[in-house]
Specification:
Number of strands: 9
Strand order of the largest sheet: 1-2-4-5-6-7-8-9
CATH topology of the largest domain: TIM Barrel
Number of domains: 2
CATH architecture of the largest domain: Alpha-Beta Barrel
CATH class of the largest domain: Alpha Beta
Largest sheet: 8 strands, mixed, barrel
CATH superfamily of the largest domain: Glycosidases
Oligomer: single chain
Strand content: 15-25%
Number of helices: 6
Helix content: 25-40%
Distance between the termini: 87 Å
Shape: globular
Structural class: alpha/beta
């Protein structure tokens, strides 16, 4: 098909006029994506690569020898959730019958409050689950401000379980400063809640940075493999988070699943007895 000179001129002008707009649009889009990535990195923790889920049936707790145990026939399985899980149907979660406890993300750093926390707390307690809350610790943020954030949101009277301090990053400072600030923070958390918090981290992070530290604290260790975590210092841990890709009724998509180990039961992680 032949094109007239006039048609050629019109086509050339239309391309020339459109080009700056599309280029600018692409620049704005790239800038927006960069901002989103930075914002996400600031607000949420990095996770180690997920491993295939370990398929585990809900277990029954064995009573400690010679001790009357009201949790002897309660599931040892639990979940932890945040805004990533969206709006959870807690009636369905409880009706599934596979878990007995839930940990909810409450706070992170100095200012972040998970926007699903209030609803999750109210609903999980309403359906009869034992509920606890966790704070994601930011090593480069003043621990005093983090303490204020945590204590202003997580009220002792609203909790069934020990609070969790989620430790996944060492930060930019020295190992010595990281441990000092973390210890100061945890000491003050203990004073506020009247009991030592449960400490959470990944298997590899524990062995690299925390082995031999906080010996008189209880631990939840994450490792997404079939074999149970082994800590370099021989430390016993209370809970194993064995997958980040678990499934349960009432939750759309993946959810972290965990279980109490050995002869540990819910009584070992209660905030109030």
């Amino acid at each position: 098909m032949k094109i007239s000179p006039r048609q050629s001129l019109i086509f050339f002008l239309s391309v020339a006029l459109a080009w700056p707009v599309s280029s600018e649009a692409r620049r704005r889009d790239k800038a927006s994506k960069r901002y989103d990535v930075v914002e996400l990195a600031q607000r949420e923790p990095d996770r180690l690569a997920e491993k295939p889920e370990r398929h585990m049936m809900a277990a029954v707790v064995k009573a400690h020898p010679g001790v009357s145990n009201s949790y002897a026939h309660v599931s040892k399985e639990g979940i932890d959730v945040s805004h990533y899980q969206g709006q959870i149907n807690w009636d369905a979660v409880a009706g599934d019958g596979k878990i007995s406890y839930a940990y909810l993300k409450a706070t992170e750093g100095a200012t972040l409050v998970d926007d699903t926390y209030a609803r999750n707390l109210s609903e999980a307690k309403r359906v009869g689950l034992k509920v606890g809350s966790y704070h994601f610790y930011r090593p480069n943020t003043d621990w005093r401000k983090q303490l204020e954030n945590l204590s202003s949101v997580v009220k002792p009277g609203e909790q069934d379980l020990l609070p969790i301090i989620d430790i996944e990053h060492r930060g930019k400072g020295s190992e010595e400063m990281f441990l000092k600030n973390l210890r100061d923070f945890i000491t003050q958390v203990t004073k506020i809640y009247g009991k030592k918090p449960l400490l959470y981290t990944f298997h590899n992070f524990y062995n690299r940075h925390l082995a031999g530290e906080f010996k008189d604290y209880k631990w939840m260790i994450a490792r997404y493999r079939d074999d149970e975590p082994t800590l370099d210092d021989g430390k016993d841990y209370v809970i194993w988070q064995y997958t980040a890709s678990g499934r349960i009724a009432g939750v759309d998509g993946n959810v972290d699943r965990s279980r109490l180990m050995g002869e540990y039961d819910l009584g070992d992680i209660l905030l109030h007895h």
